[in-house]
Methyltransferase type 11 domain-containing protein (Hibiscus sabdariffa), 176 residues
Amino acid sequence: MNPKLRKVWITRDWDRKVKFFSSIFNELKRENLLSNSSKCLSIGARVGQEVEALRRVGVADAIGIDLVPFPPLVIKGDFHNQPFYNDTFDFEFSNVFDHALYPEKFVAEIERTLKPNGVCILHVALSIRGDKYSANDLFSIKPLTKLFRRSELLRVRKVDGFGLDTEVLFRKKNMI
């Protein structure tokens, strides 16, 4: 909510972050985990660099949510209580898991709004300490994977994502 930070995010950080997220999303497209027709949500999107990156790689139906909206890329929304119907999105991305006051609710909302067979990617800090806004720190991937009760873990890999070092990819199970 800090206006000075928001100004930084839309100036010097903008291109750098859009390029980084674009490379991540392009790779997911090559792996058929994301497509131009995917309906996408960026959770805790601040000013929307992730949303802009999705649009630049050809995914037109992308929106972000944050407590402070930044139209047109980011609408007002609480990641503990997403303002969407069940099974809405094919793809959800977040790099703010460490900011969740209620990690169980954060993950439950992802699984509620993600379509069956939909993909969720979280960027988290494992080997480094989170930022000053961190409400929870992870020291292994196990506690996170236990929260995803209706999804399977597809992969864990190292990334260099602006203070976050690990990418965790889940696919929601098709519960029949």
